[in-house]
Write a structure and sequence with these properties.
The complex is a heterodimer of chains A (211) and B (82). Chain A has 211 residues and is mainly alpha-helical. Chain A contains 6 helices and no strands. In chain A, helix 3 packs antiparallel against helix 4, helix 3 packs antiparallel against helix 6 and helix 5 packs antiparallel against helix 6. The longest helix of chain A is centred in the N-terminal third of the chain and has 36 residues. The termini of chain A are far apart. The chains are: A mainly alpha (211), B mainly alpha (82). Chains A and B meet through helix 1, helix 3 and helix 6 of A and helix 1, helix 2 and helix 3 of B.
Chain lengths: 211, 82
């Protein structure tokens, strides 16, 4: 694979390895960010288990399950994009990337519908919205919904970032050399799959508490 | 097995695990529901890391091991101190 004009590395292979390593280190740092908020949730869950289980039942399991499937599918199309790039099937790559970002948008739309539903039911203790919770232990249910909104919106922000980067990549596609196309697809792919993995943990932790 | 088939099987496996985790939540397994959900999530993460993220080579594995070590310290010390 020629075309990588590197001044810092002896060989393009070495540069690719360094690129890859840097992405994994970045993913490690992101794992610390999400790990901390998961830990806060875990400690609160241990302390207020019954309140959290009751509050969790107010989330929409069908929409959450659908969204998990959407995100897994987007990871699959992203993996296809990587495959097509290696085969230099550029048209197919662009389509796979477009499908990935479209599925990302679909996830956000469904998440928005869920947020709208929760806000209209008075279950969103954020942005000074009214919190009306009829179940047991409303104080700790409020903590659950606060954490739910913090975790899912942090995840959604990461997804928005990924969608913007993929859109930018598609916009600049024609001006990009084959070697750089591969580097970009690999890097954004790693990030996208990581955001998927975060959701894979968030979904059972938030939606599936002792239903 | 061709690469494309591997990806497709991985994808179908992920959807099957999703179905399994949702179905298991309707069964009352006592304290094991949470453990089962987390085990399934970990299995999904491993599938994604190996098949989609091509987690190979010393340096990426080192980065993942380091992140894992710090997470163990973060979770371990917090939970021990309670």
């Amino acid at each position: 694979m020629s075309g990588t004009e590197s001044i810092a590395f002896d060989t393009p292979q070495r540069e690719r390895r360094a690129d890859n390593f840097a992405m994994w280190v970045f993913i490690g740092s992101e794992a610390m960010l999400f790990g901390a908020i998961f830990l806060v949730f875990l400690v609160a869950h241990i302390d207020f288990g019954p309140a959290f289980a009751a509050a969790s039942k107010h989330l929409s399991l069908p929409l959450g399950t659908f969204n998990t499937a959407v995100l897994i599918t987007s990871s699959f199309t992203m993996a296809l994009a990587h495959r097509f790039t290696l085969q230099r099937r550029w048209h197919a790559t662009v389509w796979a990337l477009a499908a990935t970002s479209a599925l990302g948008v679909c996830f956000l739309v469904v998440k928005g519908i869920e947020y709208g539903k929760e806000i209209s039911e008075g279950l969103a203790p954020v942005l000074d919205l009214p919190f009306r919770y009829a179940g047991p232990d409303p104080v700790h249910a409020q903590l659950f919904f606060g954490l739910y909104f913090a975790m899912t919106s942090l995840h959604a922000l990461h997804l928005i970032g990924g969608i913007v980067v993929i859109a930018g990549m598609i916009a600049l596609w024609r001006r990009c050399s084959p070697a750089n196309r591969l580097r970009r697809v690999v890097a954004v792919g790693l990030y996208w799959h990581f955001v998927d993995v975060i959701w894979v943990f968030m979904f059972p932790v938030l939606y599936l508490i002792n239903r | 097995m061709s690469e494309l088939r591997k990806l497709t099987f991985g994808y179908l496996g992920l959807l099957a695990l999703l179905a399994l985790t949702v179905a298991s939540s309707f069964l009352d397994l006592g304290g094991f529901n949470v453990a089962l959900n987390l085990a399934i999530a970990a299995a999904k993460a491993v599938l994604i890391a190996l098949l989609f993220m091509h987690l190979t080579g010393t340096l990426p594995r080192l980065a993942v091991a380091a992140a894992g070590l710090w997470l163990v310290i973060l979770f371990g010390l917090t939970l021990i101190g309670r």
